[in-house]
User: Fold these one by one.
Assistant:
Number 1:
Amino acid sequence: MIVQIIYKALLSSIILLLSLVVAMYSTLVERKVAGWFQDRHGPNRAGPWGLLQPLADGAKLFFKEEFMPNSADKFLYILGPSLTMFIALLTSAAIPWGPDLVVNGTVYPLQVADVNIGVLYIFAILSIGVYGIMIGGWASNNKYALLGAVRASSQMISYELAMSLSIITIVMMTGSLSMREIVAQQQGFNWNIIYQPLGFLIFLICAFAETNRAPFDLPECETELVGGYHTEYSSMKLGFYLFSEYINMFISGAVMATLFLGGYHFPGIDKLGLSPNVFAFVSFMVLFTKITFFGFLFMWIRWTLPRFRYDQLMKLGWKSLIPLAILNVVITGVVILLNQK
Amino acid sequence: MKNLTNRSKIVSNKQMNFWERIYIPAILNGMRITFGHLFRKKTTVQYPEVTREFSDVYRGKHVLKRDDEGRERCTACGLCAVACPAEAITMVAAERQPGEENLYREEKYAVVYEINMLRCIFCGDCEEACPKEAIFLTKEIVKSEYDRDKFIYGKDVLVEPADPAKRIDISKRQTPEVIEFKKNKKYKHNK
């Protein structure tokens, strides 16, 4: 029992560190990729290939002046970025990162918490995510920040509906809310994306909106709202907001890979006859590759598409995605019902 | 009505069809285009390590030329200052004293010759106005400074070194006509 507790503590710290490091280097990759898409090099002065750039950025943010507006609500002003960061890091607990490790006959699952309502947990946490932005925008006592926060909350609420509806089809097919179970059923090439292409597309679009990434980055919207909800933030509080966006990207990549792209499964690797621990490592790398692909996709889209107008965003969410998602649910239900007979 | 140019386009208010309205094909096409750019040659010039290639007739910092014997060509006639549209050039003329024949080419010379590089627009009119082929624009760049006063370049910066090995080559700025003109010994200043 005590071993299990130590193991879980260790695993959760490793995952915490992993998501932080990945988020840190996503900022570099983002700028690199942006550069390449625009025929530039991207940052390449700090260290070889600019590898020390995230450290330099972090150090810079720490040494910036901690500014707080006089009229701001002091408690909420600090709570905003902390909450955003905290919630961004919480989600990773329910994601299965690989098959079980076996040491001396004891099984160590590569998942911090195998909650039997894992999907529900992840969506609950994602929904709380909007509070960080809303509180931050409200506490700043600034028109731009408030507008950004209002946009963020309405956008997130609108897209959460379609997102959850597209997940319902997965739950209907799998018959389980456990992330582990969902991954287990996608063994080999039995990936959910093959059965639910429309569901995947809806989920992907909503994931962009949930992470406030372009083309749905209206809450930030530099061109009209200065910085949106983080207009009044500086120093590491701003850093937390920007950083949690990258953590969210990493986590939503992991969620999408888990729910639709077979998680850590890849056709053929379970037939290689690897020892359980090597197999677990290879599987984890497979999952990581899929997450990396999604990370690249997020950036690719960002540097391709312009930002949506607010009414277009709402129209897309309420008039296209939600009806499509409902249609998807109905079709899936009918197909499942017909298969049972 | 006849078109004045062949660039005019006919516009229409055609409604988008289904494929255009769902945007996905257009988005995929856009992504294809951006992906193609990943492998393009980068347009960046990595400045301190690599410098951009300059044209042979680039108009940068000025030089005040010496003749073959190392004497300053400038006679302080003031034509460059008159020609200068930015009024960047000032000078003070003086008479050559006996014994200074190896320093100055003619009886009159410039004691002070200053160009304000913040005013200069590098048009090259001074060079064109000069009857003595004394002033030329070179490939050299005017460096940035922290102090405005440091942009007023005097003779210490502008006059080229007397050492023949360190002379600044301006032959690229001289057109064949100019070189032909120089060969004509009828004019006094070419002697």
Number 2:
Amino acid sequence: MQHQMEDFIRALRAADVKVSPAESIDAHEAVARIGYGDRELLKDALCATLAKSEDEVRRFDRAFDNFFARDPFDFATPPPPPEGGEAAPPEAKLEDVSEEAAGSELAQIILAGDSTALSQAMERAAQAAQVSEIRLSTQKSRLTRRLLDEMGVAEIEKIISQARRLEGEGGNALADRLEAGRKVVAAEAQRYVQRQHDLYAAESGRQLREELLARKALNAEGGIDPVDLQMMQALVRKMAKRLADRYSRRRNRARKGHLDVRRTLRQSMAYGGVPFNVVWKTERVDKPKIIAICDVSKSVAAAAQFLLTFLYSLNEVVDRMDAYAFSGRMIPVNQILDEHGVDKAILEVLKLIGFQQTDYGRALQDFAENHLDKLDRHTTVIFLGDARSNYADPRLDIMRTIHERSRSVIWLNPEPESYWNQGDSVMNRYLPFCHLAKTCNTLDQLERIIEDVLRQYVPH
Amino acid sequence: MTILAQAANASPSADSFASVDALVQGLAGVGYIASRRIATALYMSVHLQKPILVEGVAGVGKTELALSTATLLGLPLIRMQCYEGLDESKALYEWKYGKQLLYTQILKDRMGAELADAAGMDEAMERLHGMGDMFFSEPFLEPRPLMKALREDDGCVLLIDEIDKSDEAFEAFLLEVLSAYQASVPELGVIKAKTPPIVFLTSNNVRDLGDALKRRCLHLHIPLPEASLERRIVASRVPNIEERLTHQLVGFVQALREMDLRKSPSISETVDWARALILMHADSLDAAMVRDTLNVILKYEQDIQMVEPQVSELLRTAQTTP
């Protein structure tokens, strides 16, 4: 049973449930107390010790059901003798075939129809064949073959062919039954390997894909594969949540440990100079405010979806954030993001103003006319765009005002730096008015930069 | 198990912890209808002497679980509400600064007399050292919830409510208390619990808790209950309610939870609603009655506006659910 617990914990880890050694000790202690008898009790107890969040509980339940699923094998029973008619000739015995046939464990199990013994044999063979080491779905057929070899299926095949050559009907009957049994075993082995794959490999495959996605360029040719879209959105949401967890709660913490001498002395007057009330200096930290301005024009079309997804997630987790989107004109999108689910909100924004000719000057002017009062010295402004303005006036004067009024201006550009001043890009002209300008075209970069931004430029 | 032994002295219902089923019954006896998963987690927590971290949306009975456990075991409940900015001095102990100062003022003359006949500065210093410690001793110590819990010799139930609202620094500070059931006060040394308290931490998931804290705790997530369980809870909390009303009411609330509301009603809202309806002498639900009392289960204006036009329809669904 020890071995099975270890395997189960490994399966949990593969399913992205973090299990530390200390927790696995807890789990063993729990099992020692309650035993393996009651399946539901075992499940609940292990769940309490091993799964540590709502998500993990869900994954735990799935892994548990999968791991401890033991479907009974279905052996074909020998057909009953036809009624009334002639009794079928008695089946040949294994001993009649050959001596080694009589020694074949698997053959005996098949003939006895003993499913418990078969599942035990399969567990043993699986350990020898290291089936649980499976990592990729392409390994499935090879591992199934190895598992069958370990179980001694080759032997069965030999016995079958020998039995067919035996004199009399009995040999064939035996061969038929072994043949049927062999099929059951083969199907079972396939299912077994499939389950092992689900347990140990499916999740790690997903993790691998997530990692690749996080590094994939958002403005790559053809954009992101629609198949990956959902996973990407989930990734972005996770990332925004992580950032918000770390930074949204650091505000208004008072500084402690410094005596406010002036106020302490003032208060002590009431007690004849004895400082009964000691006053400590406190410092109220401002709440951060973020204004995010996102380009959704044609030139950043591929990246726009993800920048918007990111805006959406950030909007959900940061209390004070104003989001704007533009291509020709600029509009506030907070309301849209608040009212709809992520997919619909993005579509809505793109439908309203997406994929038109970019005009940075025009957009900045819209911002200056309608929303300039939102800027104050607590505000961090984040631009997400490629600064390709189609040779229109970039309105540097407005950019300067924004720079002067806000706490900091950050520009995230999906293009690499070497492209920044080529063609109609005015990035280099905006640069003097940015506190930070960076290339950002993968999720990984986006997360790292936003984290820097929050740490450095947002007061906390 | 020390806890069991202690509990046996304290109350006859200690048998409740003999098995999970007994625990379910014991909790039901003090008015808490627990699912098996809840009872198992509590059972493991007591027997493995581990704190238990309870998560779930507001009003599913996280705090109630701690209260009921305390009642069941006949142990005192010590509750610590967490908030942003909570620190050691509010959670563990504080020196009674005012009292210290007052005593020094009162004893000033007495101390002067003591020191008057000292030959030279060194000796006066020496005597002062002897007195110094008396101002940092038990009588001047203000114990806060954690310290109180550690000093309950017969054990107690410690409820650390809404731990997710506290700062990360405080969470780190809790680790020593939770893993070793001890805390250190520099002036007094290490204070260790004679009987480890049964610790509940609750969280509403305002932020993710640190892995170190989670690792030290058992985890229990209380979901919103299924209809049958919720009916039993209502019946146990509101004893003189008609069965037909319970049926309709729970069905209605369950239907509400299917909707896309800003705040879905949880168990506490269901129970409040049931009580409100009893006060109004209702023996079954009708659309007018529901509209009048909708503000008991829904806490946002938008939600109420959204649900109001659909009340009759929801009631029909509620009738047909098993």
